[in-house]
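Q: How do we represent a protein-ligand complex in a form that can be generated token by token?
A: Start from the inputs.
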Amino acid sequence: MSARRATHRDHALVFGAGIAGLTAAAVLADHFANVTLIDADHLPESPVRRPGVPQGDHIHGLLVGGQRTLEELLPGIGAELRQAGAVTVDMGADFLLGTNCGWGTRFPSDLTGVTASRALFEWAIRRRVLALPGLTLLQKHRVDGLTGGSGVVHAARIRSSEGEVLTHEADFFVDATGRGSRAGHWLTELGYPELPQSTVDPHVTYASRTYLPPREAPDWLACYLMVTGPPQTGGGSIATIEGGRWIVTLNGLGPHGPTADEAGFLPFAETLPHPVIAEALSSAQPLTPVITTHATANRRRHVERMLDQPANFVLLGDSACCFNPVYAQGMTAAVRSVALLRAFLPQHLEGKVPAARFHRQLAAMLDTYWLLATAVDLRHPTTQGDPPGGLQRLLATGLDRLLAAGTRDHHAQHVFLEALNMLRGPASLLSPQLALRLLRAHTPRTPPTACHPPPAPRR
Ligand SMILES: Cc1cc2nc3c(=O)[nH]c(=O)nc-3n(C[C@H](O)[C@H](O)[C@H](O)COP(=O)(O)OP(=O)(O)OC[C@H]3O[C@@H](n4cnc5c(N)ncnc54)[C@H](O)[C@@H]3O)c2cc1C
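Then emit the structure tokens for the protein with flavin-adenine dinucleotide bound:
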């Protein structure tokens, strides 16, 4: 094991080259002469899976809100994704959504986005970002600690895959190492107090595999049987991705979760509240084995609650907050956290970047996403976490009313789809105008079992 030291002035270091790290590096490249992006993985030249993002084997919907933010950060990325094979989807017309309250109506909408594999999303972003001037990629290097003093981080301790240890100094540091971030440990090593965390864990298991769809495809491009509360314990989704393939994910709570057993995949789909997924799979051809994961808890690292924290070290993406993936919020929250940094940086580049102020703003933004994610999860008595507050209960009831109204009313379904796609916040779902409209509509719940899915609308 050898040791060497690289020193830069006006230098930002980004730990992790996933969605948050890549987009953060693009933002920092506008402000720092040198940006070094460090990842433990070898980053492939093509859109293929890699071990550092094991979640990439599962369905990865980038919400319309996230796509719009990504487009602001990297103009033209949507077109590049389409050119690379991503599939254009109208969330109103091409997306079949079944919940405890019934089937959402389908209608041509302005909620257009793309579906693709996680590998394609990341590769398209990576291709753009790595071409930026001033950006250096250090791959196959793992960050394993920080050095610092007097309220700032001075350097990152990095270990190459060959075991060589390096120390990289910089002026600003971003931790974007994802769900498994060791930021709390690194800060404790520097003498800071323990990083407070919150966890809400509904114990969801994901099982996914890729299929070749049947020749006679259904009239939707994406389909989701979504668990919106008890007694339902299992759901599933299918999305058409590049190459015309289907990525299929089944999910279940606690002991009701799917397993990696290939022979059990279709039978699990048959237990869902409607046979739409099982029927689609029965004539499709599996292309991959079944991959499972249990790493799905909602978890926040509350840096904003630390009275004492380094002034030049920020957490972004999953490192700050990761979500139960069933609402597909993760990548959108990651790019939104980066967009927030982009708005914050120009006002604070003189002297030290006040990370504490940034973390407070980030926490305020994450509060709304957290509220949406946990409101439904906490309805399940088996969910681990603090019991739901009044706002969470109110929101869950409001969502039920909205979903029920959305089975008949395009306007209500559009409002729900906007919330699902993170284009409107929970506060707007609790507005008196909407509440009155839903109360008047008074639509009874019609579980998806009881009726046929709506056909695609005429366009
Ligand atoms: C099963 C599952 C399904 C999901 N489905 C969706 C979905 O449908 N839609 C959605 O929006 N989100 C989904 N997510 C969430 C999404 O994957 C994350 O929110 C998103 O990837 C966050 O990006 P990130 O950059 O913060 O972390 P990641 O993308 O996880 O990137 C972290 C990076 O850090 C690197 N790294 C880790 N440790 C180190 C280290 N010590 N040193 C250097 N590098 C390191 C890794 O190699 C990786 O490149 C899902 C998550 C899971 C678990």
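The chain has 13 helices and 22 strands. Residues 76 and 232 are 40 Å apart (CA to CA).
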